[in-house]
Amino acid sequence: MSAVIDFLTDPWQHLFMRRAFAVAVMCGVVSGVVGAHVVLRGMAFIGDAVSHSVFPGVAIAFVFHFNLVVGGAVAGLLTALAVAVFSQNRRLKEDTVIGVFFAAAFGLGIVILSTAPGYSGSLESFLFGQILGISDEDVLTVAVMGLVLLLLAAAVHKELVTVSLDRETARAAGLPVFALDIVLYALVTVTVVISLQAVGNILVLALLITPAACARLLTDRIGAMMTLAPVIGGLSAVTGLYLSYAFNLAAGGLIVLVVTAVFVVCWLFAPRHGLLMGRGRRGKDGEKADRDDAGLPKASEETAAV
Q1: Residue of 60, 61, 55, 62 lying closest to 79 (CA atoms)
Q2: 250-268 pLDDT per residue, tens
Q3: If DSSP codes are grouped into helix, strand and coil, which group holds residue 173?
Q4: 41 with 90: CB under 8 angstroms?
């Protein structure tokens, strides 16, 4: 028992771990909320696109020696705006436009970085995350930006859900669909930027998408999904950090592996939509259908009666 208590309390004795826990939880919660909208809309590709589109901004910031997060945020927002504008052409699907711009942005970043000798080592923390080396200023930045993101997401929650479910109905209802597209892209961009220090540019898509995908498997209700996704993201981040501390392994990679393990469990055992649970349900439904064919009341009739 004492070993378990030591395992749970030892990391909190170190200031760098307390900072890491704070940022991990905040990033997990914010990514879960924003990621739920992304998954609901079927736009998982946008997370990958944004994580690549911030690259030229970071490259420029590195070359000219100013804040990498600011540079990445500006580049990501500009790319998101370009995607929103070009996606208005109905001849092109949204994922097509996203693919064009994220590839172009990443190529631009590589070209810019090629002008700066020795860049690979200097940007290692950007690519793979450096959550154990963040400062108090970083914690404050993530807290403020995260709070703003959550407030904005709450303010436009109903509108974003309406657009995600049926864009034409949203237009007919008078909702500003184009403006809401930009808002969603901006939410994703800032979420990606503040999560870079936790898991890095390469793995940030997992923190954005996987908790929301888990929640999608666990519930059919949008409200419950919006609650479960940040909980899964936050707990996975904390668990990954504990494992990182215990086994002296990369924190960002372990956070992603933990949340992926949760996804596999949900995929197998989710009450209604899990592979194994769903198979059992289908078996029961088949037996019920056989009974219905034998002359017993059908389920649809029972439902209609209710």
Answers
A1: 55
A2: 888 899 999 999 999 999 9
A3: coil
A4: no
* pLDDT per position as a tens digit, 272-304: 889 888 665 655 555 554 444 444 444 333 333
Query: What would you report as the CA-atom Rg of the chain, rounded to the nearest whole angstrom?
Result: 22
Alpha-carbon torsion 209, 215, 221, 222, what sign?
A: negative
Lowest mean pLDDT among 83-87, 210-214, 263-267, 271-275: 83-87
Banded model confidence at residue 162, pLDDT cuts 50, 70, 90: very high
Nearest to 39 by CA among 226, 200, 179, 195: 226
Q: Where are the alpha helices (DSSP H) in the chain?
A: 2-9, 15-41, 44-64, 68-86, 94-113, 119-122, 124-128, 136-155, 157-165, 167-172, 177-218, 222-247, 251-269, 275-293, 299-305
Nearest to 274 by CA among 287, 258, 263, 260: 263
Q: What is the pLDDT of residue 283?
A: 55
Angle at 41 between CA 258 and CA 222, to 5 degrees: 75
pTM above threshold 0.85: no
C-alpha torsion 216→219→220→224, nearest 10 = -100
CB neighbour class for 282 (10 Å; exposed up to 12, middle 13-18, buried from 19): exposed
